[in-house]
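G., the chain you wanted modeled:
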Amino acid sequence: DEANKYFFGGKIEKEIIKGWGYTRYTVKKIGPMAGTLMGVDPNVPKVDRFITLGGEPYII
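Predicted structure as tokens:
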């Protein structure tokens, strides 16, 4: 449904690739998915969506 918002708990970690010096970003642990619980019509079609990590925005 389009009314509810969903997100995962988790943390983006920054690490340097040894020998190369490049930065790599990983999410090693993803916590449970959480979301709002707005009531919606059960006949509303389901939608695909991108589920984000919760918390403060992390600019890379």
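The mean pLDDT is 90.

Shout if anything looks off.
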